[in-house]
Automatic annotation (TrEMBL):
Start and end residues of each HhH-GPD domain: 35-186
Family, per entry: Belongs to the Nth/MutY family.
Cofactor, how bound (note): Binds 1 [4Fe-4S] cluster.
Catalytic activity: Hydrolyzes free adenine bases from 7,8-dihydro-8-oxoguanine:adenine mismatched double-stranded DNA, leaving an apurinic site
Entry-linked InterPro entries: A/G_AdeGlyc_MutY, DNA_glycosylase, HhH-GPD_domain, HhH_base_excis_C, HhH_motif, MIG/MutY, MutY_C, NUDIX_hydrolase-like_dom_sf
UniProt keyword list: 4Fe-4S, DNA damage, DNA repair, Glycosidase, Hydrolase, Iron, Iron-sulfur, Metal-binding
EC class: hydrolase
Gene Ontology MF terms in the entry: 4 iron, 4 sulfur cluster binding; 8-oxo-7,8-dihydroguanine DNA N-glycosylase activity; adenine/guanine mispair binding; metal ion binding; oxidized purine DNA binding; purine-specific mismatch base pair DNA N-glycosylase activity
Annotated protein name in UniProt: Adenine DNA glycosylase
Length: 347
């Protein structure tokens, strides 16, 4: 069986029509690849369209403020991608005169561009013979060849990269890379793939050994850390308080309400004695009410955030702060955005 031929033939018949597939402009390819890291096409596509409408060139993106970029990115998650995106846009625009590097090695020097993204851009835009290996590719190769090496082990990463290099179409590496990724996304799905219509079925080791659900193999993830966030919604009904996260942690440079992080969920009696609460409410008379009786759980890759929102209503005018009408103008984590929507700020 000609593995490459089957994949390319399948792609020709089944590929999705996506805007970044109608161009070889490295700006567009780079933008789409950064957005689709750890993100499904269905979720990333609206963001790609928003970004290319507002920032049609790398110069437009470079000239934007980081806050504007984060706001447009809001809801897509993994915000370090957005910060790296902006950093690289400025480097390409201002240091390289708008020209992206034209090879894998130099592309990989850009902030936020790793092996996968550099391979995708180099092969699609510049026809460089360099294979992409993402989650979809790991899955197809592991199943078809019956490989049980963990895909997130050092040995596994090297083995799959080497195999991908052997298989790549040297005449049209860009199309082949896209075809293999698309095949994994649409045909060889993680859960319940329809093997009855798969053109690789007869030679697929996993299918013939009934091991589809067992491959690929992945080492267990790092233990999930639990964190307990208490947000203070300090308001006099006209103004409220937002703060920017500046420490090296999740959501760097995004905004949030004043936060008290504790080792476990706390009661109101403990909250109002906390030194950070006293700092924020000093000099005010206020009422405090818990907005959500049950903690809202926000799940990140290695962290689960258990969140309580405390409404601190002041009996006098808030001395500093922002208008409640402007809360939605700030880039915030989706956890905060959902609360703002639910609570009715600026609705």
């Amino acid at each position: 069986m000609d593995f490459k031929g089957v994949i390319m033939h399948w792609y020709d018949k089944n590929k999705r029509i996506l805007p970044w597939r109608t161009t070889k402009n490295p700006y567009n390819i780079w933008l789409s690849e950064i957005m689709l890291q750890q993100t499904r096409v269905e979720q990333g596509l609206p963001y790609y369209l928003k970004f290319t409408e507002k920032y049609p060139t790398v110069f437009d993106l470079a000239q934007a403020s980081e806050e504007e970029v984060l706001k447009l990115w809001q809801g897509l998650g993994y915000y370090s991608r957005a910060r790296n995106l902006h950093t690289t846009a400025k480097k390409v625009a201002f240091e390289f005169d708008g020209n992206f590097p034209d090879n894998y090695k130099d592309l990989k020097q850009l902030k936020g561009v790793g092996d996968y993204t550099a391979s995708a851009i180099a092969s699609i835009c510049y026809n460089e013979i360099t294979p992409v290996v993402d989650g979809n590719v790991y899955r197809v190769l592991a199943r078809f060849y019956g490989i049980d090496l963990p895909i997130n082990s050092t040995e596994g990463v090297k083995y799959f990269k080497s195999l991908a290099e052997e298989l790549i179409d040297t005449q049209d590496p860009g199309t082949y890379n896209q075809a293999l990724m698309e095949f994994g996304a649409k045909q060889c799905k993680p859960q319940s793939p329809d093997c009855s219509i798969c053109e690789l079925q007869s030679k697929c080791v996993a299918f013939n050994k009934n091991e589809i659900s067992l491959l690929p193999v992945k080492l267990k993830k790092t233990k999930v850390k639990k964190r307990y966030f208490n947000y203070l919604i300090i308001t006099d009904d006209k103004k409220t308080v937002l703060q920017q996260r500046t420490k090296k942690d999740i959501w760097l440079n995004l905004y949030e309400f004043p936060l008290i992080e504790t080792s476990s969920a706390i009661k109101i009696d403990d909250l109002i004695k906390h030194e950070d609460f006293l700092k924020h409410t000093k000099g005010y008379t206020f009422d405090v009410n818990l907005y959500n009786e049950e903690s809202k759980v926000h799940k990140l890759s290695h962290q689960h955030i258990y969140t309580q929102f405390w409404i601190v209503t002041l009996q006098s005018e808030l001395k500093n702060g922002i208008s409640v009408d402007n809360v939605r103008d700030y880039p915030v984590p989706v956890l905060i955005a959902n609360f703002v929507e639910e609570f009715g700020f600026n609705s």
